[in-house]
TrEMBL record:
UniProt GO MF annotations: DNA binding; DNA-binding transcription factor activity
The keyword tRNA-binding is annotated on this UniProt entry: no
Pfam families in the record: MarR_2 (PF12802)
Ligase keyword on record: no
Entry-linked InterPro entries: HTH_MarR-typ, WH-like_DNA-bd_sf, WH_DNA-bd_sf
Protein's recorded name: DNA-binding MarR family transcriptional regulator
């Protein structure tokens, strides 16, 4: 479908701008939110797990986690292997997560206004499939 990527990228940029504005009162950006989101939904996590999930270099995740540690939203928790840094949410991180999650849900509901449930569900189910296809395509290039 010609023009799909252009439409997606124009939507993505606008959405990231909206999300950054929504989270600015908490001194968060969307990239920092992604770390909070991952740890909240997956439990205490290593930096490698987070970087692998988002397909981002580990030093990038390390900087994000350090920033969140400085903000007292995540903390290192004891793990089995002392060489691995395992991160969990603090009470403040949990509180900020819940407040932002509510605002994000409100934003999601408002931007989906006027779109049928059927179309919303189709989009919700299609986007992960596109991601999987991109990852598969990247894997085939390495062979």
């Amino acid at each position: 479908m010609e023009g799909f990527f252009q439409r997606y990228l124009s939507l993505y940029r606008k959405l990231i701008t909206e999300l950054n504005a929504l989270m600015s009162p908490y001194e968060l950006s969307y990239s920092l939110w992604l770390v909070l989101y991952y740890v909240k939904n997956n439990g205490p996590s290593t930096l490698v797990e987070i970087s692998n999930y988002y397909q981002v270099e580990k030093p990038t995740i390390t900087r994000r986690v350090q920033r969140l540690e400085d903000m007292k939203m995540v903390e290192q928790i004891p793990g089995k292997d002392k060489r691995e840094k395992v991160m969990g949410l603090t009470a403040l991180g949990e509180e900020v997560y819940q407040e932002c999650r509510k605002k994000i849900t409100d934003l999601e509901n408002s931007i989906m206004e006027g779109i049928s449930e059927k179309d919303q569900l189709a989009t919700f189910q299609t986007l992960p499939k596109i991601r999987e296809n991109i990852i598969k395509s990247e894997g085939n290039k390495c062979e």
